Predict the structure.
Amino acid sequence: MVRKILETMEKVIFLDVDGPLIPSPLYFLSILVSQDRSYFSTVAVAFVNKLCMQTGAKIVFNSTHNSHEHFDEFEGKWRSLKMDAIRHGIRPEYIHEDWKTGYPNIVPEDKFYAPTHERMRAIQHWQTVNGQVDWIAFDDEPFTKDSRLIVVDFDRGIDYDSYKMAAAEFGVSDAMKGLIL
């Protein structure tokens, strides 16, 4: 019964950037990888795109990257997290219209940092604005004990194991069906 109700709800992937999309080995390519978002893990991007394709889920970023754009000196313009995600292979049709939570600025007394438990508050606030959704979250911080949080190893990023856990949470029984990386 619960799964039937969830099947009719919109599906959302709340996605952190550092760790899930930018695992630690990418820092060997550029020490500034987190600041300029110069690289995303191609494996992580492929698994996120596949999960969206299989489930109809949309991506909402729940990351400290939500609050800052960066200036691309080569292109001579400012780039948002959404633009960088698309540039690194996230399919634009998989990004939700309301593509980011209020994190980290959901804590008014501190504009630059919020405790990890505030990530859950940001998800709840986003749902207050957009309606309740069937969701999972990829994050390297264990900000809730809810099984919908897929805690990703900062050194590995979103990998096959985290993809399978997320697919199972969304009720996908054959997570590898049609998988093309």
